[in-house]
């Protein structure tokens, strides 16, 4: 009596295809190999350009940071300096460390002022121009983005005229306040925190802040706040960068499905609740991108400082990027300039990593 194999359906073949032996890889097809070769041929020019114009200069700059070189003589005349350039910036007493500390202080206040302001304004403008109730959205998007495509140097000269003693700012203040205002705003070195404390009667530094020092500057000098001139530069930077960040936020808002808004409205959520509970959480990746771009860009500010104040008054607008230019080209200290560049790179990398970690913990 014949028996039927219960493990296979009726009428199906009971034979099973033999599995390939273990430890042996399937041979790669010729087509796949040709595609890989073609891919490498296409990307080779780009890799060569990156190597010649990016990797090699970075490696040479890192080597120069350990050398004593003026930048005017041939590169083979450079003499080894070890960690001397870094010690002058971070450890050794002297003008180099003091100037670097002032540059870090000025740029720190610049970052704290510009990044939050431009992010909030850009997000608010993106929500505004993304609203379906707004008429002429294309016009407003173009108008808000227009300052971002103008030359930063040209805008800097406009701000110079605005903040000049006979400029629009003084004329407006003269019309609003009694008397005539002829303040040279870009020549004011006083920090805003010190100015406010002076109006409150605090004219001298407390003993604790005056005696303790960090990198050649007293704690009182670290807590001076941005100067009036630096505040004008911060306004310029916010005005010229908000439009670009607005477009990034706008792209993120348009990627949010409309079904989520409709579902929240059906559940009885108000517009503010929908914005806080749905829109903001879904915009976290875009927010991280904007904050990262803002952090990197503000720590590299140079052109506005160069065009408006050239580091003055009294070095209250000197930034690390401008200090690299001054040390390398004006003072012929290419080794020190390269060292500043790599310290700045390490600082930006560290702050970006901390920012990413903070946003991840917030999401969790």
Q: What tags apply to this protein structure?
A:
mainly alpha; two-stranded antiparallel ribbon; 364 residues; 16 helices; 4 strands
Please report the distance between the alpha carbons of the first and last residues: 67 Å
The H/E string reads HEEHHHHHHHEEHHHHHHHH
Strands side by side in the biggest sheet = 1-2
- Strand percentage, roughly? under 5%
Overall body shape = globular
Which structural category do the helix and sheet elements fall into? Answer: mainly alpha
Largest sheet: 2 strands, antiparallel
Computed CA radius of gyration, to the nearest angstrom: 30 Å
Bin the helical content: 55-70%
Oligomer: single chain
Tell how many strands the DSSP assignment holds: 4
Mean of pLDDT: 86
Number of helices: 16
Unreliable residue stretches: 1-15
Task: Please tell me about this protein's structure.
This protein has 364 residues and is mostly helical. 65% of the residues lie in helices and 2% in strands. The chain has 16 helices and four strands. The chain has helices at residues 30-64, 84-90, 95-129, 137-149, 152-162, 168-176, 192-199, 207-211, 219-222, 228-254, 258-266, 271-282, 284-298, 303-308, 320-330, 334-363; strands at 67-68, 79-80, 213-214, 217-218. A two-stranded antiparallel ribbon has the order 1-2. A two-stranded antiparallel ribbon has the order 3-4. Strand 3 (213-214) and strand 4 (217-218) form a beta hairpin. Residues 1-15 have low confidence and may be disordered.
């Amino acid at each position: 009596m014949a028996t039927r194999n219960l493990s296979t359906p009726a009428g199906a073949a009971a034979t099973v295809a033999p599995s390939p032996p273990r430890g042996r890889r399937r041979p790669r097809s010729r087509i796949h190999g040709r595609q890989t070769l073609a891919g490498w041929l296409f990307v080779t020019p780009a890799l060569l350009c990156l190597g010649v114009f990016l990797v090699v200069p970075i490696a040479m700059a890192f080597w120069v940071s350990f050398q004593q070189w003026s930048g005017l003589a041939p590169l083979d005349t450079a003499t080894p300096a070890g960690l001397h350039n870094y010690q002058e910036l971070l450890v050794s007493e002297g003008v180099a460390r003091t100037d670097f500390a002032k540059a870090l202080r000025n740029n720190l206040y610049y970052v704290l002022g510009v990044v939050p302001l431009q992010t909030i304004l850009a997000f608010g403008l993106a929500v505004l121009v993304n609203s379906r109730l707004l008429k002429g959205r294309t016009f407003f998007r173009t108008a808000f983005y227009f300052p971002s495509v103008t030359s930063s140097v040209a805008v800097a000269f406009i701000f110079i005229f605005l903040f000049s003693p006979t400029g629009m700012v003084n004329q407006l203040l003269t019309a609003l306040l009694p008397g005539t205002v002829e303040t040279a705003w870009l020549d004011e070195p006083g920090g805003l925190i010190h100015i406010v404390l002076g109006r409150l009667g605090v004219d001298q530094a407390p003993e604790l802040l005056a005696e303790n020092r960090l990198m050649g500057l007293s704690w009182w000098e670290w807590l001076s706040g941005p100067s009036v001139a630096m505040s004008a530069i911060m306004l310029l930077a916010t005005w010229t960068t908000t439009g670009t960040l607005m477009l990034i936020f706008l792209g993120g808002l348009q990627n949010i499905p409309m079904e989520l808004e409709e579902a929240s409205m059906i559940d009885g959520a108000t517009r503010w609740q929908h914005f806080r509970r749905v829109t903001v959480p879904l915009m976290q990746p875009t927010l991280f991108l904007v904050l990262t771009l803002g952090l990197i860009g503000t720590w590299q500010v140079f052109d506005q400082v160069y065009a408006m104040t050239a580091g003055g008054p009294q070095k209250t607008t000197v930034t690390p990027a401008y200090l690299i230019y001054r040390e390398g080209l004006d003072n012929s200290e290419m080794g020190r300039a390269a060292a500043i560049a790599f310290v700045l790179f390490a600082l930006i990398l560290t702050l970006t990593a901390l920012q990413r970690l903070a946003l991840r913990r917030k999401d969790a």
